[in-house]
Amino acid sequence: MATLKDVAALAGVGMSTASRAISGKGPISADAAARVKAAIEALNFRPSSIGRAMATQSLGMVGLFVPTFFGSYYGTILKQTDTELRAVRRHVVVATGSGELSPREQAIDAVRYLIGRDCDGVVVISHDLLDEDLIMLHAMHPKMVFLNRAFDQLPDASFCADHRRGGELAARTLLDHGHRDIAVISGPFTSSDNRMRLEGFFAALATEGIARDDVVLIESDFSPEGGYAATQHLLEQKRRFTGLFCANDTMAVSALARFHQAGISVPHEISVIGYDDDYSAAYAAPGLTSVHIPTAELTQNAVRWLVNQCYRTEWEIFREFPVSVTMRESVAQAPGATVSARKAAGVESA
Fold first, then answer.
1. Domain spanning 61-160+296-321: which CATH class is it, in words?
2. What is the structure's pLDDT at 165?
């Protein structure tokens, strides 16, 4: 296998000149650069990643922890992270949780693994980690950023949308379509972003005189299986509801499937609104109305902020991520809503 010394000898330059030509850093004449390039091609030379790391004190890798590889939400994060790092000729190393440990312990072990692999920086997305866990992990590796997590102790390293506002918009969408008999399939109650969207949701309902106890609330886990099982539980309760809020799109799509199997028409009998507006929502049947969280933009700015810390780049960083609702076919006027209710909601008659 050819070495840097072989390249330098064939090109007729010193090893330091050959190294500068390969790294693109430092002064070198056009003639010397051309000879080094020709020698590399002739010898089929591949620079050693270990050698580069020793020279630059960097492996050129950023770690990313995600709780699971499944789902379009995490797919968006993975894709955007890879895109941002490739733009600066760096690469992503991904870890996820697995095994018999609790989700919290899995997350801690996975982040420690990335730190132990000498990643230049680490991106963490987890609703299972506690604040004290984030403090501990950040102390182990200060070049760390937290995605989809509002963390007051480290605000510069935290990138998160306004989930309380997202919950308010979900409730407002159902209310504006005349729904007052409402059910919710929640994510884990321990999840901070889930708690915020529920707070916003129930606060908006309260302004219309709908108490939290009047709403059927089922805790689930953000998974397809969890959404399906929670929907089945709703149906078994036989408690009337015309509007359903699911705390993410993955569970909402499962709810649509279970309603279809049960012969329940969406949106004519039950309206469904999801959360995240990931790319699966537009292809659901019917199309899924969803609270739009700008996940790609969140990821882009979180990763760019970390790249700035690791590699002294100067990306402009944005921290405002407007939340909105993308209307599709899964939400319609509540069955039996009065004309006055429609007018009060600002919804025209068909």
1. alpha beta
2. 97
